[in-house]
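REVIEWER CHECKLIST
Item 1: Sequence provided? yes
Item 2: Single chain? yes
Item 3: Sequence as submitted:
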Amino acid sequence: MFVIMMEKEKLLLELYKKTLKAQDFFAEKGWESIKFHILLSSSLVSITVGALIAMHTSSVFNGLKYEAKGLLTSILAVLPITMFFVLRVGAKNFTRECKRMYEQSTIFFKLEERLGFWQDRDKNQMKGLPKDDKYFPNRYKEYFTNDKWSNSEDFVEDIMSRGDTLYGNMKTIFKIFKISSVILIIIISIVTVLHIIPIFSGAAII
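Item 4: Structure as written out by the authors:
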């Protein structure tokens, strides 16, 4: 009987290690998504703004007819439009990765409870941090004893709605660059219209 219990404990510890690796995997993927989209979006914004300025300070561009100016300017809209849709897909992927990461936490709670990690510390053996009566930080108690989480789905939904988590903090980056892409599209559209309307063609030359 004792041998069987020991084997079960080993299996649980192996599952704990695998769950930890899975959580690290999804966390790493989440950070990679953030870094990739920051780099890509920053590059596209810089290229779009740089190209728009370069075109309108070029003597060759200023010597073209207004139709040609409008056409060339409108082509630049491809960049922010592409950025917007890439960010849209990236935001969905980031959300999925964060959900998977938080789902692993719910497995941790169950395994830690089963393995006895939530038991009180032995006061006779406590040599440091005497006010910590548990092996985990006190804030972990909220996760373990929160009554509003009846299942894993409730936990993930609540954590995803908070502003002090990885997802809560970093999802704003996608929103900022989405707004930037829309602003660039509007600016390019306005400049294009100023070029293709003859009465404004003179004002469009910057």
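Item 5: Key structural point noted by reviewer: DSSP finds eight helices and no strands in the chain.
Item 6: Recommendation: ____
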